[in-house]
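Dear colleagues,

As part of the handover before I leave the project, I'm documenting each prediction I ran so the next person doesn't have to rerun anything. This entry is a single chain, and its sequence is reproduced below.
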Amino acid sequence: MSKKPNAKKTKLPLTLIIGLGGTGCDIISRVSRLASPEQKDFIRFVFFDTDANELRARKEEFPSAFTVQTSRRMTVGQALRNDSESREHSFPINPQLLNKPLTEGAGQVRAISKLAFDACLREGRISELHSAIDELQKLNGDEMEQSMRVVIVSTLVGGTGSGILLPLALYLRHYLETNCQKKPIIRGVCVLP
């Protein structure tokens, strides 16, 4: 990362910007390109996606960004075998989905994204998000002067973003309230058709 700025000399808020799925990640990619170097000192970008190829491209373009791949190398059917709660209560019965690889993205199916996100949480594969939060907290020093702003960017009509928007927001609220000195300000920017 860049040099540690002196938070006491600036009025720029500490901001965590999270892009969910293809559309959310596209939008925060544009924001990152438009932000000045000074602004970027106080912003951390986190890309969430089930599509491994998309995340790899984001990381190449934005090496300082954090990425969370919610999917693993398995099919939807294999993931359902490991998640009885989803299998029995929330996943739509559709034999055509069972052989779909999770790493190829949710493909406009919200339930696939939520299934992958739930596994990601259970398996502790969300450390990149925690690292981004830790970096921002360190900028404030020992005495937290300001609340962290969090902006979650997603579409409401796709697969990955729509499927994990609410579960991620709830997880994030709990994590930040447990691990930060001041209550965070969490906002969503959601794209409609």
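The first strand starts at residue 15 and ends at 20. The chain has a mean pLDDT of 87.

All the best with the project,
I.
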